[in-house]
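Bit of a strange request maybe. I'm writing a small parser for structure token strings and I need a real example to test against, not something I typed by hand. Could someone generate the tokens for this chain?
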Amino acid sequence: MRCALAFLLVLFAGSALAQADPALVAKLRHGGYVLYLRHASTDFSQNDERMTSYDDCANQRNLTDKGRNEARALGAEVKRLAIPIGPIYASPFCRTRETAQLAFGRYERTSEARGGPANTKDPTRYEPLRKLLTTKPPSGQNAVISSHGNPFYALFGPPYLAEGEIAIVDPSAFVIVGRIRLVDWQVFQ
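Reply from user aminoacidic:
Good idea to test on real output. This should exercise your parser:
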């Protein structure tokens, strides 16, 4: 009985946390936020262990066809809702660059969006990403960072971002003001 109750509480809490706030779109239309986007759906049978460079897409975990469709749909929703997008930064991995390209048609490749070198215990590893997240976008625009789940989790803690989910960050306060899952975009007007 306790296990079932605990499961229901976790399920309810998770769905309550993920609910999209309709007032969020109005805020985004004014600009001034950083949209931290975890790349769209990937093929988890692939991994990055054998890659020789960030351009070696054949040896990375890549977007699936579903992920490509998700990225295009996300971009279409942002356009439909007239959310102004300024600078778009993408981690150098193929899946983040492809997500940004399919969603927004452009990106600036930058290691800062990844959060530092891989496989390090350096406590300052995520400082370049934090700097991007606290940089105010140009007036009337929102910035986008197409990146990964682990750097987000390292900076903000749980809950973990799902693939294709966006966290809206207020750069002046370094706080999350909302989250939008892929399925949430359809409820916005």
